[in-house]
Write a structure and sequence with these properties.
The protein is an alpha+beta fold. It contains 25 helices and 18 strands. Among the domains are: 79 residues, 3-Layer(aba) Sandwich (MutS, DNA mismatch repair protein, domain I), CATH 3.40.1170.60; 129 residues, DNA polymerase, Y-family, little finger domain (Dna Ligase, domain 1, 2-Layer Sandwich), CATH 3.30.1490.100; 182 residues, no CATH class. The protein binds 2'-deoxycytidine-5'-triphosphate.
Length: 699
């Protein structure tokens, strides 16, 4: 659900920039001969000529719509040029569009805080730039304005018949008697027009923009005059704008909430909500939503522009409509493998280019059950800690799927073995990696990458570190506020989603589960319920803080450890050979280090910590007390840096194959350190992962 936030009293200048028919423009740049022609980009499948996903404005003028398929578009506009979206791994490859979006962002980010909101949308906070302009070169002292700014649409500005619209806009920009806020907006309009021209010059793409005093109004305005135009919302025109804005056009009101406002309150426009008091709206829709509705009726929206040029999450998805629905575990596994490979590539390029790592893997599925027409939104989404490496992501995604399928079908009817299935079908799969954190620049130490994650003074709060530790400590936990991809049509894989409300329930495993070979992993799952966004175009996944996280926060180190001992016993008794993640190893190393430093446990506990940590396949069983806030609790976890960090490991017992899991630069750093010192291996036969990377306490 939307979150009600107060607006600051300070005047702000916010712009929303939206690329015009973006995929078409990218294809037209690749093939300039298509410029000016009615063009559409179609999905790669050939059914009825493929689904249209982007339509040029020339084609729109001929009646072509995005809801059409290629064959229909040809009927409506015989001269239409249909370009197929690039394909990789049997699905749409959006990399060229994603990269084109990044080019635009790099131009737009020069003038103020810039938030990349989707593959082709950006918010800018231009308040400072506008204030400076007003101080140094106010519009009223400007003689010549660029044509582009004079073409602006200013809501509420009356252009009488026969009068020169550009001259009216010039007068509006230069009004000396305008309110301060509107003077700032005039400066914002000039800045945005310059930025849009710059985007055109550097990328060859046109875009449209809205300029207002908050994000909500700026977004509404950017869509009002397309393509290649901009719209300004002066304060005085807000009421009029909302008075005529249909409820369903407002972000978050496209779905059930909007329908309820229409049918239960009889309201058809956003302005229609003005007749209700805040208390009434709160009574009917809850405190937060009620206040949010009361605010939007007045055009109030305190959301900040987040300085973010990079995505909050990575996702890769594919839909399997109608007869293409997947009906066997094998076919699901095949497609999960494709999606995970793509996700892995993107994770690695994010690591290489931006020095960021993701911490949570989430699987979203849409499926149906035969005989249950209501089942298509009920497949629970599942998350687990993300392990780097294509194979590991694939394995984990399949485990998440199987756990979700078991819940979806109900324990009694679930059969995982065999491929025969007559009662379910999967119509959409998507995997996403979220909780992305930056690695501080200039550090190439594994200790900083993994052991110290969540503890970087500049990038994490104490709460974050608690979350991270809980992620590693408590089975099933993932952050309560992660962002991840929802189900999206047309393999739309780049998502920058807002935080949403919470809804969750515990994943509960039956020891008799036929999936018991998965149970240690499944035990580490977070179940998430799908909340479909009210807005048709913005399907979102709501994530909540799982109950276990809340419980875990309350656990004392000692109770934590004893519960872990029990888990450890169970796992050792099972004698399972489990996979090992390098991330776990380093986390466990540091966790055991911090346990020692914090002196919360006895030696036995520390031993358990090592044993559990190093034999665990999932991230869940390390004994760890790092949820004690290092800033507040008076106990610090010292993360060794650089060479010093490596020196505390037993090099003789390091399995070189584990090193392959590391990011390339870390591998290099590690091998450089390892080579001159590596002695002939003295690892005993049968020596297990339990012993790898234990700190050398003799040093
Ligand atoms: N897209 C997609 N599937 C959808 C919607 C959009 O793959 N259901 C892709 C193609 C679009 C791009 O995302 O080019 C941006 O989507 P927009 O909704 O912003 O639409 P356009 O940029 O194509 O057109 P407009 O000029 O109306 O914004």
């Amino acid at each position: 659900m939307p979150v009600a936030r107060r607006e600051t009293c300070d005047a702000r200048v916010i712009a929303h920039v939206d690329m015009d028919c973006f995929y078409v423009q990218v294809e037209q740049r690749k093939q300039p001969s298509l410029r000016g022609l009615p063009t559409a980009v179609i999905q790669y499948n050939s059914y009825k000529g493929g689904a249209l996903i982007a339509v040029s404005y020339e084609a729109r003028r001929c009646g072509v719509k995005r809801s059409m398929r290629g064959d229909e578009a040809k009927e409506a506009c015989p001269q239409i040029q249909l370009v197929q979206v690039p394909v990789a791994r049997g699905k749409a490859d959006l990399n060229s569009y994603r990269n084109a979006g990044s080019e635009v962002v790099s131009v737009l980010s020069h003038k103020g805080l810039c938030e990349r909101a989707s593959i082709d949308e950006v918010y800018l906070d231009l308040t400072h730039a506008a204030e400076s302009m007003l101080m140094e070169t106010p519009p009223e002292c400007t003689q010549d304005f660029e044509e582009e700014v004079l073409k602006s649409h200013v809501l509420g500005l009356e252009i009488k018949d026969g009068s020169d619209a550009k001259e009216e806009v010039r007068k509006w920009l230069c009004r000396s008697d305008a309110r301060y806020q509107d003077k700032l907006l005039a400066c914002g309009a000039i800045i945005v027009s310059e930025l849009r021209m710059q985007v055109l010059k550097e990328t060859e793409f046109t875009c449209s923009a809205g300029i207002a005093h908050n994000k909500m109004l700026a977004k509404l305005a950017s869509a009002m005059n397309k393509p290649a135009q901009q719209t300004v919302v002066p304060h005085s025109s807000v009421e009029q704008l909302l008075a005529s804005l249909p409820i369903k056009k407002m972000k978050h009101l496209g779905g059930k909430l909007g329908s309820s406002l229409q049918s239960d309150l009889g309201v058809s426009t956003v302005g229609g909500l003005l007749q209700f008091s805040e208390e009434q709206l709160q009574q009917w829709y809850g405190i937060n939503t009620g206040t949010w509705l009361w605010n939007i009726a007045r055009g109030v929206n305190g959301e900040e522009v987040e300085g973010r040029l990079l995505p909050k999450s990575h996702g890769s998805g594919k839909t399997f409509p109608g007869p293409q629905a997947l009906k066997t575990i094998d076919s699901v596994q095949y497609w999960l493998n494709q999606l995970c490979e793509e996700l892995n590539e993107r994770l690695h390029s994010d690591l290489d280019q931006n020095k960021r790592i993701a911490q949570t893997l989430t699987l979203h599925v849409r499926a149906y059950k035969i005989g249950d027409s209501d089942s298509h939104r009920k497949f629970p989404s599942k998350s687990c800690p993300l392990r780097y490496g294509s194979r590991k992501i694939q394995e984990d995604a399949l485990i998440l799927f199987q756990a979700g399928l078991r819940d979806f079908l109900g324990f009694n009817t679930f059969k995982v073995h065999g491929n025969e299935n007559n009662n379910w079908g999967v119509t959409s799969l998507s995997v996403s990696a979220s909780k992305i954190v930056s690695i501080p620049s200039g550090t190439h130490s594994i200790a900083k990458y993994f052991g110290g994650k969540g503890k970087f003074p500049s990038s994490s709060t104490s709460n974050q570190s608690v979350d991270v530790v809980i992620n590693e400590t408590v089975p099933s936990s993932s952050s309560g506020s992660e962002n991840c991809t929802g189900m999206v049509p047309y393999d739309l894989q780049l998502q920058y989603l807002d935080d949403t409300g919470m809804k969750h329930s515990d994943a509960c495993l039956d020891p008799q589960d036929p999936l018991n070979h998965l149970s240690s992993k499944a035990d580490g799952l977070t179940e998430e319920s799908i909340l479909m966004s009210p807005s048709g175009s913005e399907d979102r996944m709501a994530h909540g803080e799982p109950r276990r996280v809340l419980l875990a926060k309350d656990l004392s180190p000692v109770s934590n450890i004893s519960s872990l001992k029990a888990v450890g016993k169970k796992k050792r008794a099972a004698g399972k050979k489990e996979n090992c993640s390098i991330i776990n190893i380093f986390n466990n190393y540091h966790n055991s280090q911090s346990s020692l430093k914090l002196k919360v446990t006895n030696a036995h506990d520390v031993k358990i910590s090592s044993a559990l940590g190093s034999s665990s396949a999932d991230d869940s069983y390390s004994t760890c007390n790092e949820d004690i806030d290092t800033n507040k609790g008076g106990c610090s976890v010292v993360i060794p840096q650089g060479r010093e960090a490596w020196c505390s490991y037993h090099i003789d017992e390091i399995d070189p194959s584990i090193i392959d899991e590391l990011p390339p630069e870390i591998q290099q750093e590690f091998r450089t350190w390892l080579r001159p010192q590596k002695r002939p291996s003295v690892a005993k036969p049968g020596s297990s992962i339990t012993h790898y990377f234990l700190p050398d306490k003799s040093r």
